[in-house]
Amino acid sequence: MRPGVTNSGRGPHRPDPLVRRATARDARRLTRLVRTSRAYEGPYAPMVAGYRVGPDYIEAHRVFVAADPGDDRVLGFYALVLQPPELDLMFVADEAQGLGIGRLLIGHLREEARQAGLSGVRIVAHPPAEGFYRSVGAETTGTVRANPPAVMWDRPELLLPVGR
Questions:
Q1: Of 109, 131, 149, 155, which has the fewest beta carbons less than 10 angstroms from its beta carbon?
Q2: Strand runs labelled E in 14-112
Q3: Residue pLDDT, tens place only, 42-97
Q4: Residue 65 forms beta bridges with which residues?
Q5: Separation of CA 153 from chain center
């Protein structure tokens, strides 16, 4: 292997991202990540146009970010609601897609859910993300029908087993 190249061949070795609890200071960065996500372009754009992840949301929920340990750049985040158990938000920055950030966050979510005594977490997925959730072990349980004007399309409903 060449010096400065990881086994993945993606370039110089960088330390693995750290998953940490989000703070109120992260609110603007998380909001920007949601609003600029390429996954919500085209017909999905209205869904996130005015979306806000505020400090109050971060304080009220279990919100975790995957951050670059060198510069604390947010690579992705998720929000876990415990009652009832549901993945409320999960986003990976466009430039971090395909680097394992989503899998890292799902692994962290599973551990958080396990520690909270949960056996599974409901996911109402953005339709293009269904394949990702199925690839990490979520099982399709149904469909959540469109609810215009808030949501204009049907969404897959899944259950992510977390074990005990």
A1: 149
A2: 18-21, 62-67, 74-82, 85-92
A3: 888 888 988 999 999 999 999 999 999 999 999 999 999 999 999 999 999 999 99
A4: 20, 77
A5: 20
The tokens of 111 are what?
Answer: 């551990």
Dihedral (C-alpha) 54, 56, 60, 121: value to the nearest 10 degrees?
-20
- The answer to whether the beta carbons of residues 136 and 160 sit under 8 Å apart is yes
Contact residues for 49 (Cβ-Cβ < 8 A; gap 6+): 35
What's the whole-model pTM score?
0.88
Q: Give the Cα separation of 130 and 108 in Å (integer).
A: 19
Nearest of 24, 105, 27, 19 to residue 59 by alpha carbon: 24
Instruction: Look up tokens 């979520």; give the residue.
Output: 138
Query: Residue type at 140?
Result: T
Residues 6+ apart with CB under 8 A from 149: none
Separation between Cα atoms, residue 47 and residue 101, nearest integer Å: 23
Instruction: For residue 75, give the amino acid letter.
Output: L
